[in-house]
Amino acid sequence: MTDARDTILRRLRLQTRGDVAHPPVWETRNQFDDLATRYAESLTAVEGSSQPFGRVESGLNGRRNSLAEQRIDPMGLSNQD
Question: 11 in a domain, yes or no?
């Protein structure tokens, strides 16, 4: 079995790769504004709110704090009696 493998690898090594023409880069005509701002505006329109955070860690901590203030268990269970 090793002999067949070696034969295949040797053939692949000996092949020369010519210049390959890559397809052109796909470009869209659509222009998108700042998606974070658009998301916040969409939330506000339906009486929601967003809390932007600079880093993932601070966002997770902020979300945990927000849930704790509302006395909501992060696993989806309410602590309110």
Answer: no
